[in-house]
Design goal:
The protein is mainly alpha-helical and 155 residues long. Helices cover 48% and strands 8% of the residues. The protein is built from 6 helices and 3 strands; from the N terminus they run ααβββαααα. The protein has a 3-stranded mixed beta sheet. Strand 2 and strand 3 (79-83) form a beta hairpin.
């Protein structure tokens, strides 16, 4: 994988046919973020206690996600934090589509951490949910399988 590129940015590359996602779209409205999160939540087997969209510079510093993280949790808190500048949330906020499913998988990954999963177990949970989206034909199987391979390659 290219240094500094998350699998979510690579998903965008696959979908858009671009070599790199060198920009993020103009900031969406708070309503667009809320709608994207609501669409993603409808796809989850269960709901998180709380989701908060945060700015990257003001995100709590004790999380382990790093500067390019799409989402994170803080140890001992039942809250999933979504980074507003994250490529997945940005793309999902543009309107319904495959990025809603990617956002749901990101949230599911963080929920696994809340439930006590370490990083490999949270990644497996995310991958399993993505496989379910493929099997249910919510996402195109070719794109879905390529994205699943990228998710697996991060380990």
């Amino acid at each position: 994988m290219l240094p500094g590129f998350s699998v979510y940015r690579i998903l965008g590359t696959l979908l858009l046919g671009a070599a790199f996602l060198g920009f993020l779209p103009p900031c969406a409205s708070a309503n667009a973020y809320s709608e994207a999160v609501d669409r993603a939540l409808r796809m989850l087997p269960r709901q998180p206690d709380k989701i908060v969209v945060v700015e990257r510079p003001t995100a709590p510093s004790q999380h382990a996600g790093g500067p390019r993280s799409e989402a994170f949790v803080n140890l001992g808190e039942p809250t999933v934090y979504l980074v507003r500048q994250g490529a997945t949330l940005q793309r999902a906020s543009e309107g319904p589509g495959i990025f809603d499913f990617a956002l749901a998988a990101v949230i599911w990954h963080e929920m696994a951490h809340i439930d006590g999963a370490d990083e490999p177990a949270a990644q497996r949970a995310e991958e399993q949910l993505w496989k379910e989206f493929i099997l249910a034909r919510h996402v195109d199987s070719r794109v879905g399988m390529r994205y699943l391979a990228l998710l697996r390659d991060r380990r």
